[in-house]
Here is the input.
Amino acid sequence: MPDDTKPKITPEEAAKTHNAPIIRRPDDMSPEVARFANLSQMVFHPTPDNPTEPNAGILTYGPGGGFPLHKHDFAQVWYMLEGECQYGDQVLRPGDLVYMQDPHFEYEMRTEAGCKILFVQYPGPTTGEAPIYDGRFNQKEKPKLEEQDLER
Here is the structure.
């Protein structure tokens, strides 16, 4: 319960020095093909106008989908929404939260029946490296795994 004796701040006053929240819905985003032939609904991603915006959205892997072990210099968090996947020697299920500090590697991931992951990738506090959008999430056609850079 708010304390009515404290000074109140208005959104207009707050906006003079701070950014307002941005609200978007994943279902309003058209699915794009991502680098491991999965589908992504990118709700947020870095742009020239906002280079510090995170990569954030929903990743959907169909039956038999996944990716090989690879590395990143940015940080990220996943939240399992649906399905199951084998991730290294663990099975990720709905409700699992995975944090990957920078720099990090990702275990090989495979899903037999498919899975859906909410993810947020953001500039690494240690490395300063930003997440990569172009050429990762906005593919025009199904990418070839052998052409993917697994080092970043």
Notes: The first helix runs from residue 11 to 14. The domain at 24-139 is CATH 2.60.120.10 (Jelly Rolls). The longest strand covers residues 75-83. The chain is about 5% helix and 35% strand.
